C-alpha cells in the first residue's frame, strides 16, 4: 500500500492520541544524533593524534561554519549550533532511507512545518539579540509604514514555502521509489535509492542555507535576502 506520509502509519492509538511513524523515526534520528555526539565528544583530544570520529566531527563542523560564513559574510559562531542541528537532523533523516522499513520524518508536513517554524522563531530571536527590539521591529515599516502588512505576510509565506519545499521533495522521492519497486527490476530502484540519498542531502543543505539567509536578513542593517544570496553565487 502506497503511503504519502509517515503520519499514515499508526503504531498505537488511544482516542485522538496517536503514535505514528513520524514520531517514532523522529525520536530515532534525535537519539542517534545525541548518542553519536556523546560518543565522539566524550574523549576529545587537542593533540596531533585524533580519533576518526573526532576528525569526522571537526570536518563537519568546519564545513558548516564555512558555509555559514560564505552566505552571511560574518562570524558564523552565533548561528552554528542552530543551523548545524537543522542540517544534521534533516540529512540523517534522509540518509536513513537506506533502511527498508524506515520512513523519513521529513516526508511528513508536520515535521517540515515544525522545522520551518523553528526558523521563523529564530529570525526575531537573533534579530532582537543583535539589533535590539526597537531596531528589529522598525525594519517592518521600511521604507514606509505602508509596507508593514506586506512584510508580515512575507514572513509567514516564506515559512510556509520552506516547509512545503522540503516536504514535497522528500515525499515525491519516496513515492517514485515505491512505484519503481513495484513495476521495475531490482537494479533500477537501487539506482533511484542512491539518487534519492543525494537529493536528501542536497535538500538538507538548501534548507540550512535558506535558514541562514532568512536569519541574516533579519539581523543585518540594510541587507536584503537578495543581497545575501548574491554573496553566495
Give a structural overview:
The chain has 233 residues and is mainly alpha-helical. It has one domain (6-42, 51-232). The chain is built from eight helices and two strands. The chain has a two-stranded antiparallel sheet. A hairpin with a 2-residue loop joins strand 1 (10-14) and strand 2. Helix 3 runs antiparallel to helix 7. Mean pLDDT is 80; it is low at 222-233.
Set down the secondary structure blueprint.
Blueprint: E1 10-14, E2 17-20, H1 21-41, H2 52-72, H3 77-95, H4 109-131, H5 133-138, H6 148-183, H7 187-217, H8 225-232
**Which shape, going by the Cα principal axes?**
globular
Which structural category do the helix and sheet elements fall into? mainly alpha
Helix residue percentage: over 70%
Number-wise, the strands total 2
Order of helices and strands: EEHHHHHHHH
In terms of quaternary structure, what is this? single chain
Estimated radius of gyration: 20 Å
What is the domain total for the residues?
1
Number of helices: 8
Q: Give the averaged pLDDT, no decimals.
A: 80
Keywords:
single chain; 233 residues; mainly alpha; 4% strand; disordered C terminus
Amino acid at each position: 500500500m502506497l503511503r504519502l506520509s509517515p503520519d499514515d502509519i499508526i503504531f498505537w492509538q488511544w482516542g485522538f492520541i496517536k503514535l505514528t511513524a513520524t514520531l517514532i523515526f523522529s525520536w530515532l534520528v534525535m537519539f542517534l544524533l545525541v548518542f553519536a555526539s556523546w560518543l565522539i565528544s566524550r574523549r576529545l583530544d587537542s593533540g596531533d593524534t585524533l580519533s576518526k570520529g573526532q576528525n569526522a566531527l571537526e570536518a563537519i563542523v568546519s564545513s558548516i561554519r564555512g558555509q555559514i560564513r560564505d552566505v552571511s559574510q560574518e562570524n558564523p559562531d552565533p548561528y552554528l549550533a542552530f543551523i548545524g542541528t537543522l542540517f544534521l537532523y534533516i540529512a540523517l533523516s534522509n540518509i536513513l532511507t537506506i533502511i527498508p522499513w524506515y520512513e523519513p520524518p521529513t516526508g511528513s508536513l508536520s515535521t517540515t512545518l515544525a522545522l520551518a517554524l523553528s526558523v521563523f522563531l529564530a529570525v526575531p530571536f537573533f534579530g532582537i539579540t543583535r539589533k535590539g527590539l526597537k531596531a528589529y521591529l522598525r525594519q517592518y515599516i521600511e521604507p514606509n509604514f505602508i509596507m508593514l502588512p506586506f512584510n508580515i505576510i512575507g514572513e509567514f509565506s516564506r515559512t510556509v514555502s520552506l516547509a512545503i519545499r522540503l516536504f514535497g521533495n522528500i515525499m515525491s522521492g519516496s513515492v517514485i521509489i515505491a512505484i519503481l519497486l513495484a513495476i521495475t527490476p531490482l537494479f533500477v530502484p537501487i539506482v533511484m535509492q542512491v539518487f534519492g540519498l543525494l537529493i536528501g542531502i542536497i535538500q538538507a543543505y538548501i534548507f540550512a542555507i535558506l535558514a541562514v539567509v532568512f536569519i541574516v536578513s533579519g539581523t543585518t542593517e540594510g541587507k536584503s535576502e537578495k543581497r545575501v544570496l548574491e554573496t553566495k553565487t
